Amino acid sequence: MQLQQLTRQVVFCLMTIGGVANVELAMAQPLTDSRGYVDGIAAVVNQDVITLRQVNAEVAEVTKNLRAQKIPVPDEEILQRQVLQRLIDERLIRQEALHMGFNPDQIDPLEAAELIANRNQMSLAQLRQEIEKGGLQWETYLRSLRQEVLIDRIRQQVIDPRISISDSEIDALLKSQGIDPASTKQPAQANEILEVAQILVRIPEGASQATQAELKQKAESLLRQVRSGADFAGVAAASSDGPEALQGGVLGARPLEGWPDVFASALKDTATGQVTDVVRSGAGYHILKVLNRSQAGNAQSAEADFLVTQTRASHILIKFNQITSDEQAKERIDQIAYRLRNGENFEELARAYSEDASAPQGGSLGWLNPGETVPAFEQAMDALAVGQVSAPIRSQFGWHIIRVDERRDRNVGNEFRRMQARQMLHQQRVEPAFDDWLSQIRSQAYIDNRLDPELSSGRRK
User: Which sign does the torsion angle of CA 237, 241, 244, 249 carry?
Assistant: First the structure.
């Protein structure tokens, strides 16, 4: 399997090298750059500083990665600005995570790497070999994974609760695919997978009509460049405002229905290797390119029953957040585990101490299908025999103690289809919602961008 197909979304995420500087300390120790930027500071993000040294270290790493992928490298000043904007966004995300109680430094990227390896039927050593074969250092790859995990946690806490999907919307999606929502059969799967890249011209929060018109003209100019033969990935690296710009604009691969509606409408009739017209979304103006079209790997020749092993399970959850640290949550769950080992009742302890919505039911989660819980939870649950209680295990939600109450095999064709449809609709909406959230964070932040002053904004927090 190609490196790009393994981890397209995370391989070239940029992580800051070195710690967060303090504004006063940085200004007390001035540095000078050959171009004369004040104090060697590239940007101030609220109370954090990004130095030119950090930017240039990332520029060197990005240049190496782009060349390894045969993507044209932008001019140095353009690349510096692109790298700096990425670092600014990462600082903003880190600051919000700390405010929510997530410490990015406590994320173990090896856990994510092992999950990627397992999903691709590889060992961790084989994954590392594939990564390094593509010209990327393993340490850089792990830093990128930490950022992806952090963003995923923020999405789950901030964005997911805002997304509501009704049964009628699921029915409508299934009918649009020619599927009877009431059928218990698993239909033949012939969904086409589209791998897509984009160039984004972002519209700032509160932009005037005149500014929006100027940005649309910029997007149309970029479209003329790529249609005149300019390398799409190179234009994305130099000019896109998307977080994946320095990956050549690659967004990844998913079924057509998994892309946001405005993307799906534009992509539907776009051939492999071709680009769409300029597409407007809430984030800005997009130019989309279809990199590849392929059939889903789980295609079936006829309708069939869809049998899975379901697990009825209960759990006790202690969350970590801005009030309770990871270490404090672990200490509390260890105390509960000790009490369970000494014969206390699981349901009574769940009602008294669990911080999950299942607490009033004694921790009961009901019947769970494969893939319905997060990987760390599911792996621990699947390793238990009926009646067995786990040791404390950690997920992105907190610390759990799990008990398996029962297992059964069941035909869940209808439930599985509806779950897939719900996930597809969720995927359509979560990324635009996250982009809106990040845009609001930018607009509220104090940003002093000294390489591109026009992007400076806000007030100091």
Answer: negative
d(CA 245, CA 232): 11
- Amino acid, single-letter form, for residue 85: Q
Give which of 219, 221, 229, 228 is closest to 198, Cα–Cα.
219
- Cα within 13 Å of Cα(399), Cβ side: 20
Can you give the residue ranges of every domain in the chain? 3-162, 176-300+415-444, 308-410
Superfamily name with CATH number, domain 3-162: Porin chaperone SurA, peptide-binding domain (1.10.4030.10)
pLDDT tens for residues 154-205?
A: 888 889 888 989 989 888 888 877 777 666 555 555 568 899 999 999 998 8
In angstroms, how far apart are the furthest CA atoms of the chain?
74
Alpha carbon separation from 122 to 55, 108, 148, 201, 206 (Å, rounded):
34, 19, 20, 38, 47
Q: Name the phi and psi angles at 234, rounded to 5.
A: -65, -40
Alpha helices in 69-208 (DSSP H): 76-100, 109-119, 124-133, 138-154, 167-176
Size (the chain), residues: 461
DSSP 186: B
**Tokens (6 digits) for 80:** 């510096």
- Strand pairing of 48-51 and 192-202? unpaired
Q: What is the pLDDT of residues 305-353, one digit of tens each?
A: 678 899 999 999 999 877 888 899 999 999 999 999 999 999 999 999 9
At residue 38, the pLDDT reads: 46
Instruction: Measure the CA–CA gap between 107 and 143, rounded to whole angstroms.
Output: 10
The CATH number of domain 308-410, selected from 3.40.50.850, 2.40.320.10, 3.10.50.40, 3.30.360.10: 3.10.50.40
Run of H or E including 366:
strand 364-368
Place of tokens 């950022």: 147
d(CA 422, CA 167): 9
Calpha distance 172→106 (Å, rounded):
42
Give all strands (DSSP E) within 220-336, no chain letters: 250-255, 279-280, 284-295, 307-318
Residue 260: pLDDT above 80?
yes
pTM of the model: 0.68
